[in-house]
Design goal:
The protein has 631 residues and is of the alpha/beta class. 35% of the residues lie in helices and 16% in strands. The protein has 3 domains: 302 residues, FAD/NAD(P)-binding domain (3-Layer(bba) Sandwich); 55 residues, no CATH class; 152 residues, no CATH class. Strands 1, 2, 3, 4, 6, 7, 8, 9 and 17 form a 9-stranded mixed β-sheet that branches. Strands 5-12-11-13 form a 4-stranded mixed β-sheet, with no helix packed on it. The protein has a 3-stranded antiparallel β-sheet with strand order 15-16-18. The longest helix has 22 residues. It binds flavin-adenine dinucleotide. Flavin-adenine dinucleotide binds next to helix 1, strand 7 and helix 9. Pfam families: FAD_oxidored. This is FAD-dependent oxidoreductase.
């Protein structure tokens, strides 16, 4: 046996004897959204459970972190029972009216359920080492106010959100998107009291953070506390700040490499498990404004088809909780084995609570059947999860367009069906809500290509013409290039209404697709967009999309970033363009007048445009990375 620890930032392994002070069936580390459910479920199953949490209460991001509302996710599971206990207290007049699930009450309800079930809780404690035998986790070294402890467990469940324990154990992980490793923005959440006497949260996207870099974490905390949303000379008495939540709102951090992985590509290709342990339900809730730097799959869906709105119901297999090649350790929460794209959908609180419950059920079966975690019999696991409704027999993979407030099981709107009828696709492409039709055409492929080409030539139907070109572009067919170029030359900022918000103007969809199609004729226009921004003065914009593109500066950032990425794709295939692109980019990035600025998302329309983020350094580092491939 050996122990892996981190000393002054460096991971070290050393031989260790099995001198454990205490023994548990399960140790849950991080008693947040997922971990609280994991600990309670495991203890209710009769297991001896230790819960280690670095803060002083349970519930994590959903309680002490102030993220008290639900956004999509699926119903069912033991979290519903916990929430109904919270709500029955919340209805009593002794408590202020609360928007969402009352964080403090949920702390107490979780505490009392955990204690009642027999969980031994250790707050203000955290893990500093992991004991392993080969790649089988045997226990943890952890520190509490009493000092250092060495404790064994049959199964360790890492619910730290950041996969802290798995990382310590040497588990492989990914972080951020492929191009530059950047995660979604974080939020520094406030609690406020509102004029109607209720209490609720308030948050904006506060910036970006690298959790592997302590300086970045500290700087993010300082800077976001000093934002105009937080520290003000004079506060508006309409909404009084009560507190800054002590747990930073991290949307995305490490994602483990598991025995199984769910990717957005799998979702698009219908390659999904038949052995789900729960379903995740959300849209691709990507808070990023620099969409041009996201993956092709994400841009196909969000940019070319403008499908920010539709929600996916995604089956999650048990292998996403098991670190690849390891035994004795599971993860639950936002660090599941999913790719960056689908991580923006598989992170909502209901689903993360389910992941904790599922992890505890897997641990229980592994211990009672005396089998490795990856050998846990699916039939038994499914029966346990169906019993608590964590997994429902009625659930299936589907797409639905509903508002965050609607319960999709009760929703009057049926699940979206991909269109297969040519006439139905034509009709939908001729509207301002073409997204599903564009994607349906892409799915059909070859059989509809000739019809799309014909519709693309119907000048009298401009929407049909342009949407058909976008569909053909997604299918990789170059016949659409002249129409896509037309969209670019016209600086056509037409906005489809496919999604609730975050709709993508035709122009950026066309630039993206022309890059994918390696169209050299569009290069001079792309270089013009990169070189200068005076053309912006005459552009007409649509303010209904201001959550995504708030002002002209942000609009120019979109011109610049989409053009840069398309130009790189084209020059990748056509080396004769590389030198000119490098010259234009080099001199533009050196231009002190270049302002590449985004507006962070605020969730509150009146506060829109408040927080700006300069993107020059990020763009420059992406440029340097791309150009280095050619040297
Ligand atoms: C700003 C923001 C807004 C969101 N809005 C919504 C929304 O409206 N609706 C919705 O459904 N979802 C929302 N989400 C998503 C959802 O809240 C999170 O994805 C989910 O809560 C994550 O759960 P988790 O269990 O992975 O992590 P957490 O709930 O953060 O739990 C991790 C726990 O581990 C503890 N911990 C961490 N490291 C250690 C360590 N080394 N040792 C011991 N303990 C440790 C932490 O203190 C914490 O208690 C939002 C997320 C953010 C950040």
């Amino acid at each position: 046996m050996y122990i892996r620890e981190k000393k002054a930032g460096v991971r070290v392994s050393s031989p260790a004897s099995a001198a454990f002070g205490d023994h548990y069936d399960v140790i849950v580390i991080g008693l947040g959204t997922a971990g609280s459910m994991a600990a309670i479920t495991a203890a209710r199953r009769g297991l001896k459970v230790l819960g280690i949490e670095r803060l002083n209460s349970m519930g994590g991001t959903g309680t002490i972190g102030g993220v008290v509302g639900y956004y999509y996710g699926n119903r069912g599971g033991i979290f519903e029972e916990i929430d109904s206990q919270v709500i029955s207290y919340q209805k009593q007049e002794d408590f202020v009216r609360f928007q969402g699930v009352h964080g403090e009450i949920k702390n107490w309800v979780l505490d009392s359920n955990a204690v009642q079930a027999g969980v031994e809780i250790r707050y203000e404690s955290f893990v500093i080492g992991v004991y392993l035998d080969g790649t089988s986790v045997k226990g943890v070294r952890w520190v509490s106010p009493e000092g250092i402890h060495d404790t064994s467990a049959k199964v360790v469940i890492d619910c730290t959100g950041n996969a802290e324990v798995a990382e310590l154990a040497g588990v492989a992980f990914d972080m951020g998107r492929e191009l530059d490793g950047k995660c979604q923005p974080f939020s520094n959440v406030l609690m406020k009291s509102y004029p109607n006497g209720s209490v609720g949260n308030f948050y904006t996207d506060s910036g970006y953070i690298d959790i592997d870099d302590p300086d970045s974490v500290n700087q993010a905390i300082f800077e976001s506390n000093l934002l105009g949303t937080h520290l003000q000379e004079c506060y508006n008495e309409e909404s009084v700040v009560l507190k800054v939540c002590p747990l930073l709102g991290l949307r995305e951090t490490r994602r483990i490499v598991g025995e199984d992985q769910v990717t957005f590509g799998d979702v698009l290709a219908d390659h999904l498990t038949r052995e789900p342990i729960f379903f995740g339900f959300s849209n691709l809730d990507n808070h990023g404004k620099d969409m041009a730097f996201e993956s092709d799959n994400q841009q196909d869906w969000l940019v070319a088809a403008s499908l920010f709105g539709p929600n996916m119901n995604v089956p999650i297999p048990k292998g996403t909780l098991i670190p690849k090649g390891y035994d004795g350790i599971l993860v639950a929460g936002r660090c599941l084995s999913v790719d960056h794209d689908i991580a923006s959908a598989i992170r909502q609180k209901r689903d993360m609570q389910k992941s904790g419950e599922a992890a505890a059920s897997m641990a229980y079966l592994s211990i009672h059947q005396n089998v490795q975690l990856k050998k846990v019999p699916y039939g038994l696991l499914r029966a346990m999860l169906e019993e608590s409704k964590c997994l429902r027999a009625v659930e299936r993979t589907e797409i639905r367009e509903i508002t965050p407030q609607e319960d999709h099981e009760q929703a009057p709107i049926p699940a979206t069906k991909w269109l297969t009828d040519t006439q139905a696709i034509r009709e939908a492409l001729n509207t301002d809500k073409p997204g599903i039709a564009i994607w349906s055409a892409k799915r059909l492929g070859e059989p509809i290509a000739y019809a799309l080409e014909e519709w693309m030539n119907q000048q009298e139907h401009p929407l049909l013409r342009k949407n058909s070109a976008l569909a053909l572009g997604l299918m990789g067919r170059t016949k659409c290039v002249p129409v896509l170029r037309e969209i670019v030359y016209a600086r056509d900022l037409y906005l489809p209404r496919t999604s609730r918000k975050y709709n993508q103007p035709h122009l950026f969809a066309a630039i993206y697709l022309l890059g994918r199609l390696k169209d050299t004729e569009i290069m001079p226009e792309l270089l013009r967009f990169i070189r200068e921004d005076t053309f912006m003065e005459t552009l007409e914009t649509d303010s209904s999309n201001d959550e995504f593109i708030y002002d002209r500066k942000e609009l120019y950032f979109q011109f610049f970033s989409f053009s840069m990425m398309a130009a790189f794709r084209i020059a990748e295939a056509h080396p004769e363009w590389r030198q000119q692109l490098a010259e234009v980019m080099g001199s533009r990035l050196a231009d002190p007048g270049l302002e590449l600025i985004i507006t962070l998302k605020t969730h509150i329309r009146e506060a829109n445009g408040f927080l700006k983020k300069k993107m020059n350094a990020r763009v420059e580092s992406i440029y340097n990375r791309l150009i280095s491939n050619w040297s």
